[in-house]
């Protein structure tokens, strides 16, 4: 361990970013499994242990990376304080995504089944889109690109609006509660996951004071 | 890697605004050379003063407790045991101070150097929990060093064991006391030291005044060079320090943490920097007191490298003996107070108790710093000189 002093390696913040990307990979894994349990015939019990272990790993990594950020400031001084605070927010967002994936699993484990429904195919398609966004977010986190970021933002904003509209529709629907309530809850989770993914990519580009706020700080992204 | 950390990594970004690494490395070598010139100037200046002046100057530290207090005060004043022990090595090289008289000063320097991280911990005074952890992490170093002196100063006065070991080693390396060894470094720095003397002679100085001015010039050069070595080395190795601290955090054993403290301190040539890095980590709860403690012990040993370096510029074996005494004292301190599990926790318990008191009554923290590092040593010097 002491020999690491003599070896070359990534600088502190680079290491935190690369570990954040792997955390995002873990969060995607949880999301994929949890939605599979809710939207397909996969038994929630069969993915439970994997999702909870992944969540533990995400939490553990978040704690280790927070410590690394404190070490960074203690050793390097305050020159990178903006990046350090941004990374603290970023880690929390990834951790939240992991929690929200776990919430989807909880929904499935409570007995809600959305497989073999009229809208299952549409929901599975949407699941695929969001899962891809995890990968895009990871890519943008390590190699930001202004155009891709703007395009990602437009898509995410579109999804957020769509999810909100669906939630409101379910809230005012005349359909039975056992049909609309799980869907409203599910879309609320999806909306928060997408908002967090958007927050993650914006952390790499937006100024720290207005991060998570839109319209020059007027609107909260509601993640 | 670009992204949230910017277009470049920390070190690259920092360096794009400042000195490139190869130039900085050359600068460090130049400052080490300058440091050796400074130490040699100290020796030269005191030799110019003549034996009568030397005797008057150094007779005040013949009492070991007074010597200990001078070591504490001198180190607190320059905020660096590397600097104060290098000066002591320079003084021993002139034979103005004997090795026996210098040993308590070296031990005092070990205590004095702990003031820096204790002062750093006072920066957390507004947040009770943070301050408690930070103050304990800082004072565990104080407790260990004070306990080491409490045990080993009487032992040294009674048996001469610490300096005896050092004498044995230096005897094997460069010859026995009283002889003169041809230090190659001494030859390398001879010319610039001669220039310093020539410059002051050219403005009309001679005798004691010339000697004093050459000593003061040497002091300025030593302090300036050490500051610049530390500053440049800190920049050069910051990424490595960060990476190795992260690797050791909460995973390494006491020995690994000790080695980390040793390596970082040798690299940055300052135990104060190593121990001061630990304070914000402890305050934030990233590093526990028991994990920080062995790092400070490694720093204690690592900081002795500077005096060993200074001894290279001296021409008598006694200079190396006193430098080795510093190393021996710190290694023996670890053997006596850290290796036996029964006593290992005493400094930790002392630091925790003191931190509890300091959190309840903040003025005690300030009183502690003033008392241990300034008032008591001043009283010691005043009464015992």
The domain tally of chain B reads 1
Order of helices and strands of chain B: HHHHHHHHHHHHHHHHHHH
Summarize the main sheet of chain B: none
Largest interface: A-B, 36 and 39 residues
- Give the CA-CA distance, first to last residue of chain A: 39 Å
The level 1 CATH classification of chain A is: Mainly Alpha
Total DSSP E strands of chain B:
0
Rg of chain A (CA only): 19 Å
Give the overall shape of chain B, derived from the CA principal axes. Answer: globular
Strand percentage of chain A: under 5%
> Assembly type of the shown chains?
heterodimer
What is the average of the pLDDT values of chain A? 89
What does this structure look like?
The complex is a heterodimer of chains A (223) and B (385). Chain A has helices spanning 12-39, 44-76, 81-109, 120-142, 146-171, 177-203, and strands spanning 213-214, 219-220. Chain A has 223 residues and is mainly alpha-helical. In chain A, helix 1 (12-39) runs parallel beside helix 3 (81-109), helix 3 (81-109) packs antiparallel against helix 6 and helix 4 (120-142) packs parallel to helix 6. Chain B has 385 residues and is mainly α. Chain B has one domain (22-384). Helix content of chain B is 82%, strand content 0%. In chain B, helix 5 (81-93) runs parallel beside helix 15 and helix 13 (271-283) packs antiparallel against helix 14. Chain B starts with 9 loop residues before the first helix and ends with a helix. Classes of the chains: A mainly alpha (223), B mainly alpha (385). At the A-B interface, helix 1, helix 2 and helix 3 of A face helix 1, helix 11, helix 12 and helix 13 of B.
């Amino acid at each position: 361990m002491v020999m690491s002093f003599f070896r070359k390696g990534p600088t502190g913040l680079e290491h935190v970013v690369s570990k954040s990307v792997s955390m995002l990979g873990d969060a995607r894994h949880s999301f994929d499994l949890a939605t599979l349990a809710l939207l397909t015939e996969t038994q929630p019990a069969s993915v439970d242990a994997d999702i909870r272990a992944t969540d533990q790993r995400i939490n553990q990594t978040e704690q280790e990376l927070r410590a690394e950020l404190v070490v960074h400031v203690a050793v390097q001084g305050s020159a990178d304080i903006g990046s350090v605070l941004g990374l603290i927010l970023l880690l929390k967002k990834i951790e939240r995504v992991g929690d929200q994936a776990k919430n989807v699993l909880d929904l499935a484990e409570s007995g809600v089944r959305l497989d073999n429904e009229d809208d299952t195919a549409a929901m599975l398609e949407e699941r695929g889109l969001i899962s891809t966004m995890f990968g895009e977010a990871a890519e943008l986190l390590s190699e930001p690109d202004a155009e891709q970021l703007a395009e990602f933002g437009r898509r995410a904003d579109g999804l957020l609006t769509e999810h909100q509209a669906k939630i409101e529709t379910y809230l005012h629907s005349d359909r039975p509660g056992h049909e609309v309530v799980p869907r409203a809850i599910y879309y609320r989770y999806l909306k928060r996951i997408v908002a967090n993914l958007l927050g993650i990519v914006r952390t790499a580009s937006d100024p720290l004071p207005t991060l998570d706020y839109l319209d020059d700080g007027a609107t909260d992204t509601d993640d | 890697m670009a992204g949230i950390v910017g277009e470049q990594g920390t070190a690259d970004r920092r360096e794009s605004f400042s000195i490139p690494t190869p130039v900085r490395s050359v600068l460090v070598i130049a400052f080490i050379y300058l440091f050796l010139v400074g130490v040699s100037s100290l020796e030269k200046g005191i030799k110019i003063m003549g034996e009568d002046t030397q005797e008057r100057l150094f007779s005040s530290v013949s009492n070991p407790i007074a010597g200990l207090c001078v070591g504490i005060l001198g180190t607190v004043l320059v905020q660096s045991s590397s600097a104060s022990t290098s000066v002591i090595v320079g003084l021993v090289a002139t034979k103005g101070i004997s090795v026996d008289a210098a040993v308590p000063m070296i031990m005092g320097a070990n205590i004095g150097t702990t003031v820096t991280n204790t002062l750093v911990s006072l920066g957390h005074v507004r947040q009770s929990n943070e301050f408690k952890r930070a103050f304990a992490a800082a004072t565990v170093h104080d407790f260990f060093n004070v306990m080491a002196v409490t045990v080993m100063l009487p032992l040294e006065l009674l048996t001469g064991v610490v300096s005896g070991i050092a004498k044995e080693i230096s005897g094997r390396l460069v010859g026995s006391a009283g002889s003169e060894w041809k230090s190659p470094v001494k030859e390398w720095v001879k010319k610039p030291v001669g220039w310093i003397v020539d410059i002051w002679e050219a403005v009309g100085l001679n005798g004691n005044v010339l000697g004093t001015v050459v000593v003061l010039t040497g002091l300025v050069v030593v302090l300036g060079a050490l500051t610049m070595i530390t500053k440049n080395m800190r920049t050069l190795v910051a990424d490595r320090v960060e990476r190795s601290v992260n690797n050791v955090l909460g995973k390494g054993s006491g020995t690994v943490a000790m080695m980390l403290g040793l390596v970082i301190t040798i690299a940055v040539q300052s135990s104060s920097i190593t121990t001061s890095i630990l304070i914000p980590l402890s305050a934030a709860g990233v590093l526990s007191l028991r994990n920080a403690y062995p790092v400070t012990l490694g720093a204690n040993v690592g900081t002795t490298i500077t005096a060993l370096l200074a001894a290279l510029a001296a021409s008598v074996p006694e200079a190396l003996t006193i430098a080795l005494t510093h190393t021996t004292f710190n290694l023996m301190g670890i053997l006596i107070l850290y290796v036996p599990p029964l006593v290992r926790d005493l400094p930790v318990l002392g630091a925790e108790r003191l931190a509890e008191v300091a959190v309840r009554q903040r003025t005690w923290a300030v009183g502690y710093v003033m008392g241990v590092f300034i008032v008591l040593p001043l009283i010691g010097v005043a009464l015992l000189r």
